Amino acid sequence: MSEKILEINDLRVQFKNGKEKVQPIRGVSFHINKGETLGIVGESGCGKSVTSLAIMGLLPDKTSEIASGNILFNNQDLSKLTDKQFRKLRGNDISMIFQEPMTSLNPVFTIGEQLKEPLRRHKNMSKSQARKEIISMLQQVGLPRAEQLIDEYPHQLSGGMRQRVMISLALLCKPQLMIADEPTTALDVTIQAQILDLLKKLKAESDMSLMLITHDLGVVAEMCNRVVVMYAGEVVEEAEVNDLFDSPKHPYTKGLMQSLPSNNDRKSKLFSIKGQVPRPSEITGGCAFANRCPHVLERCVKETPPSFTHQNHLSKCWLQDTSYKEVNHDETKGTAIR
Amino acid sequence: MSANLEKAFHNEPAAKIKSKKESSIYRFFANLFRSWTGTLGFIIILGLLFISIFGPWITPYDPLYADFSKKLLPPMTDGHLLGTDQLGRDILSRIIVGARVSVIIGVLTVVIAGIFGTVVGIISGYFRGWVDVVLMRIVDVQLSFPFILLVLVINAIIGAGLRNIIISLAIGGWVIFARMIRSEVLALREKEFITACVATGVSRFEILFRHILPNLFTPLIILASLQIGTFIIAEASVSFLGFGVQPPEPAWGNMLNEGKDYIFSSWWLITFPGIAIIIAALGVNLFGDWLRDTLDPELKGE
Amino acid sequence: MLDFIIKRLLQVILVVFLALTAVFFLIRLSGDPTALFLPPDAPREQIEEYRELLGFNRPLQDQYADFMVNAVQGDFGESLRSQEDALQLVIDRLPATFQLAIAALILSLVIAIPLGVLSAYKRNSFFDRIGVGLTVLGQAVPNFWLGLILIFFFAAQLKLLPTGGGGTLVHLILPTITLATYSIARFTRFTRSSMLDILRKDYIRTAKASGVPTFPLVARFALKNSLIPIITLIALDLGTLLGGAVITEVVFAWPGIGRLLMQSLMNRDFPIVLAAVFIIALIYAIINFIADILYAYVNPQIRVK
C-alpha cells in the first residue's frame, strides 16, 4: 500500500451557538494516499465542506472547535498546530480552491498582488521572481495573455477565468495536497468540463494529491481513484472508484447513483431519495439515514451501525453485517435494486 | 435573531398562548428582555414618557419660582437635590419639566418629518418619472447642507419658540425619510410578489396601498426611532445657541445656555441638564438599535 | 471619467445655487431687517427711506435677480452692521474653521480607524464590548455640552488650557477634542461593522488559505476593502463636522465661520448669512466631489468604467 499523505481519524467538529452545541462532523475517518485523487461525495449539508475547512484550520475560531479525533498530514497532527505553524502549511503544503470563484478573489487588488502573497511568504521570492513565476503559472492553467492579466482586477475576468486564477493560486507553491471544494459547481457546463480537464492534466504532471469535494458522481467517476461517501456528518461508504460504481453497498450511495439521469429510462421519472439530510441537532441514535432508507430495519433505528470493511470496501450499514444476514429478509431486495 | 425568537416562542407550552395578539406582545417582550441594551433603552423611554406626562405633579418645587435668596445653591442643600440656578429655581424640577419639551419635540418632529418624507418617498419611488428627478434633486441639495446648520438658519430666520423649532427640525429632517422610503419602494417594486400583482392585473393604487405601504412600516419605525435621538440633541443645540425654546420655559438646551455663564463657579448648572440629554438620547438610540437588529437583521450594525 | 467629473461639477453649482435661492426667499419672506436698525418709534418715512436705500421696497423677483447677478460675481453686499464686504468677512474666517475641522477630522481618523479595526478583529472580547459601549455613549453626547464640561475641568478647575479664543495651538486642543468626539464614535462604529462585514467575505478565506497571517490580512487586505464605505462616511460626516464646528466655535469663541454666522443670525445681518451659506454649501459640495473621486480611486470597479 502506498504512503498516506493525509489521515483523518474519528474527527468530530463541534459548532457552538450560545449554549447549544451541534456536531456537523461526527466521527469521520478516511485517508488520502500520495498522488491519488480522493473524491468526497454527498448532498449539501453532509459535512464535506466543514471537513475540508477543518483540514485547512479555517473553521471559525470562536464558534467551532475540533472536539476529538486528529488530522495527520505527513504524520503531523494538524489539529495541534499553532496558528503560526499552520500558516506555514497553508498555501504551501496544502492549498485549497473554493466553490465561488466570483467572490473568492479580492475585488480591490490585482491578480498579481493577490497571487504574489503566498510566493513571497512561503518561498521568499523577490518581486520580479514572483512575477515571473505567477505569469508562468497563469499560462500553465491555460489563461491567455498572462502578462496583462496579472495587472488586471478580478471583475475584469469571467467566472471560468477566475477559477483558473484560483487554481493557479493554489498551485503556486507546488503543494503536496490540494483540496478542491466543488470547484465547478458555480460554473457553466462547458467551463466545468474545461476546469476538470485542467485539474486532471495538472494532476498528471505532478505527484500532488487531490481531495475533490463534489456532489456530482459523474465528476467522481471521471476524476477519482477512490471515493468517500458522506452522509449527515459521517462516512457511510468508502471504496475504490470502480468498486463503488460496480457494487455500491450503502443504500444512500445506491440512491445517489440511481438519481443520475443516465441510469434512468427516458420514460421513467428521475429517481430521487425521499426526504432531506437531517440537521445535526435532529440526529439521535441509530443510523442517520434510517428515516430515508428504503430498506430500513428495526435495528437501524435503534443501533448506530459500525463500519463493515470487506476487501478495502467500507460501508456503514447494518445490511453489511454478515453475521446478521440470515435474519435480514431485505437483503435480497437491496441487491435487486442495482 | 428571529430564529432565537422562534425558539423562545416554541419552548413555551402552547396552552400559555391564547390569542395571536397576546402572543405577539409576549414575543416582543421575550425578545426585548434578551437584550439588556434594548431593555435599558425601553426603560429609559418609559421613564421619559412618565415624567413628561406627570412632570408638573411630581416636581419637588415650582420650576418657574425664582427665589434670589436661594440662588446658585450646590446640590444636596436645603432640599434641592440637584441645587438651584442663578435665579434660585430648583434644577431638578426644571429638568423634570424640561423632559416634556424634549419628548414633544422629538415625537412631533419625527411624526411630521416622517409623514412628509414618506409621502415624498412614495411618490418619487413608485411613480418615478420627472417628479422623481425633481424631488430627488431637492433632497440632494438639502442633504448637501449640514443638518444642524440648516435647522439653525431656518429657526433663526423664522423665529424662536416651540412651534418654530419643530417646524425647523421637520424641514431639516424630512429628507432622510424621503430618501430611505424611496429606496425601499424601489426595492419593493422589483420584488416577485409585486411583479405577480402587476401580472394579474391588480391596480396601481391597490398595489401601493395593500402591498407596498404595509412593507414600509418596519423600516419607517426603525428610522423614526433612531431619528428621535438626533432631533432631541439638535433641539438642545439650537436652544443652547439662544434660538429654539425660549426662557423662562425650561428646556434642557436653554438651561445649558443660561448655565454656561456660571461655569467657573457653579458646575451643577451645566452638568445635570446635559446628563439628562445624554440619558434621553442614549435611551432612544439603544432602543432604536435593538429594534433595527431585531426587525431587520440584515441591517445589523449600521 | 471626464464625463463623471463634469456631471459632478454641474451638480456642485446646482447645489450652491439652490441653497442660496432657498435661503434668500426664506429671509425675504420672514420680513425685512430694517426695523432692527431703527428705533421702534421711527417715523414711517424714515423706514421707507431706509428700505429704499437697501432695496427692500422693490419687487421680490427683481431683488432676487439682482442678488443672483451680484452673487455670481462674488458680491453678496455689505454687512448691514459694519458695512464691510460680506463675502470677504466670511472668507477671512475660513482658515480658522478649516483648522478646527481638519484637526478634528485627523484626530477622529487616527483614533477611530485603528480602534474600529481592533474592535472587529477582537470581536466580542472585553475590549470590543467596552469600545462598542463607548461609541454608543459618544453618539448620545451633545458636543456643546462636552465643550462646556471640558472647559470646566481643564480651564476652570485645572487651569491648564484657555477657555476660548483662537490663534495658538493650545487654543485648538479643547475645541478639537469636543468636535472630534462624535465623529470618533461614529467612525469607530462604522469601521468596526464594515470590517466585520469584509472579514466574512470569501476572498478573506482565500487569503487565509494561502497562508497570509492574520495581521497583514487585516491591516492591508481587509482595510483596503473597507476603505470604500469609510470614505463615503467621512464625506457624509464632514457635513456633521462642519455643523458641529459652528456650535463648537460658539462655545469656545473660536473665530471661525460658525461664530460669524451665529452672530449674524442674531443680528439679522443677512448679507453675511447668505455669504456664509454660500461658502458652506460650496465647501461641502466640493468635499463630496473629492470623496467621489477618491471613492473611484479605491474601487477599481468604478475606476475602469
TrEMBL record, chain A:
It is a peripheral membrane protein. Residues 6-257 form the ABC transporter domain. GO terms for molecular function: ATP binding; ATP hydrolysis activity. SUPFAM superfamilies: P-loop containing nucleoside triphosphate hydrolases. InterPro entries: AAA+_ATPase (IPR003593), ABC_Ni/Peptide_Import (IPR050388), ABC_transporter-like_ATP-bd (IPR003439), ABC_transporter-like_CS (IPR017871), Oligopep_ABC_C (IPR013563), P-loop_NTPase (IPR027417). Belongs to the ABC transporter superfamily. It is found in: Cell membrane. GO terms for cellular component: plasma membrane. This is ABC transporter ATP-binding protein. Gene3D superfamilies: P-loop containing nucleotide triphosphate hydrolases. Keywords: ATP-binding, Cell membrane, Membrane, Nucleotide-binding, Transport. PANTHER family: DIPEPTIDE TRANSPORT ATP-BINDING PROTEIN DPPD, OLIGOPEPTIDE TRANSPORT ATP-BINDING PROTEIN APPD. One of its GO terms (biological process) is peptide transport. The keyword RNA-binding does not apply. Its main location: membrane. PROSITE patterns: ABC_TRANSPORTER_1, ABC_TRANSPORTER_2.
Automatic annotation (TrEMBL), chain B:
Residues 99-288 form the ABC transmembrane type-1 domain. It is a multi-pass membrane protein. It is found in: Cell membrane. Its main location: membrane. InterPro entries: BP-dependent_transpt_permease, MetI-like, MetI-like_sf, OppC_N. Keywords: Cell membrane, Membrane, Transmembrane, Transmembrane helix, Transport. The chain crosses the membrane at residues 36-58, 103-127, 139-158, 220-245, 265-287. Belongs to the binding-protein-dependent transport system permease family. This is ABC transporter permease. The lineage of its organism: Bacteria, Bacillati, Bacillota, Bacilli, Bacillales.
UniProtKB/TrEMBL annotation, chain C:
Its main location: membrane. One of its GO terms (cellular component) is plasma membrane. Pfam families: BPD_transp_1 (PF00528), BPD_transp_1_N (PF19300). PROSITE patterns: ABC_TM1. It is found in: Cell membrane. The chain crosses the membrane at residues 12-31, 96-118, 130-156, 168-185, 227-252, 272-298. It comes from the Bacteria. Residues 94-291 form the ABC transmembrane type-1 domain. This is ABC transporter permease.
